[in-house]
Amino acid sequence: MVSKPAPDATRRSEKSRRAIYAAALSLVAEVGYPKTTVEGIAARAGVGKQTIYRWWSSKADVLLEAFLDLAEQTARAAGHDTAGNGTAGHETAGIPDTGDLAADLKAVLRATVDELLDPRFDAPARALTAEGVVNEQLGRVFVTRLLEPQLQLYVARLRSAQDAGHVRRDVDPRIALELFVSPLAQRWLQHTGPITYDYTDTLVDYALYGLAPR
Question: How many CB atoms lie within 10 A of CB 106?
Fold first, then answer.
């Protein structure tokens, strides 16, 4: 009698995890965060509710991990080494450092535009962002786990520019990055205008060169 090989538990677990990620993201995009439940995610993923609770403590944890994974997958598919919001390249902890700060920031923000316009990213990102405004706990986790690590990549690149003499020493990089990151986020979230490469290129030019005549 020929014995059959034992099932690969690792492969089965990874398949279930991927199914849960996909179910969580599609469900929150369709019905919003408040109506998304662990039961609903489990049913759509074709797994038992206990499977989800074995890996995560809440739907927020599931969604945040699924969203982080999506950002990583998107970055990898685009040929980037780091995840989320256009953190292209690998130098300076994730943002390219070619010696041309304006070009590097424009490249990163163009990658961000591509991500924001990707329907796979847009719908769950909006749902989580909107819920984070009214759900303080979720908002803190969203900022801590996803947003702030990405912003620190900009901080690192701006500090590198300071070291090279391309940015004034008295500039606070954490505040300075908001000159081009925050307007893009606001325009995307509130639909106040088109999200384009020209727009983000202009944000960088205004942030670096100001509004006064040169």
Answer: 19
Phi, psi values for residue 210, rounded to 5°: 75, -175
- Which of the given ranges, 74-78, 113-117, 118-122, has the highest pLDDT on average? 113-117
Going by pLDDT thresholds of 50, 70 and 90, the confidence category of residue 75 is low
Secondary structure (DSSP) of the chain? -PPPPPP-HHHHHHHHHHHHHHHHHHHHHHH-TTT--HHHHHHHHTS-HHHHHHH-SSHHHHHHHHHHHHHHHHHHHTT-SS-STT--SSSGGGS--SS-HHHHHHHHHHHHHHHHT-HHHHHHHHHHHHHHHH-HHHHHHHIIIIIHHHHHHHHHHHHHHHHTTSS-TT--HHHHTHHHHHHHHHHHHHT-S---HHHHHHHHHHHHH-SS--
> Does residue 212 carry a pLDDT above 80?
no
Using pLDDT thresholds of 50, 70 and 90, give the confidence band for residue 85: very low
Give 35-44's long-range contacts (Cβ < 8 A, gap of 24+): 36/63, 38/62
0.85 cut: is pTM over it? Answer: no
Q: What angle do CA 184, 186, 94 make, to 5 degrees?
A: 40
Contacts of 183 (CB under 8 A, 6+ apart): 203
